[in-house]
Amino acid sequence: MLKIQDQKLIGDNTLTEAYASLVGTIGDRARGVKSALVSAETDLRTKYDTKQALSGVNMDEEYINLDMFKQYYNANAQLLKTATDMFDALLSIR
Fold first, then answer.
1. 34-46 b/e with 16+ CB inside 10 Å = b?
2. Spatial separation of the C-alpha atoms in residues 38 and 30, rounded to whole Å
3. What residues contact residue 58 under an 8 Å CB cut-off, 6+ apart?
4. What residues contact 14, with CB distance under 8 A and at least 6 apart?
5. What is the per-residue burial (b if ≥16 Cβ within 10 Å, else e) of 73-93?
6. How far apart are CA 92 and CA 13, in angstroms?
7. What is the pTM of this model?
8. Mean pLDDT across the chain
């Protein structure tokens, strides 16, 4: 086994050297892919922010407005119900 370990079996490299080279290559490629991913995520975020700025629509603000209008609607519905109940009571006095 020790003889095989020291023999140049893969090109001009021993098994240990070839393994070390393979691990290094995989590590380099993994770092490259991770760097590309971070760059792509940054680019995507920048483009999304630019799109949001150009569209003039802020989703957080829209959700706040939607909730506010929902509260207005509920308040008006309650007002109409109260007015209807009052008119019904007045009409039943006769």
1. eeeeeeeeeeeee
2. 12
3. 52
4. 5, 6, 7, 8
5. eeeeeeeeeeeeeeeeeeeee
6. 103
7. 0.47
8. 88
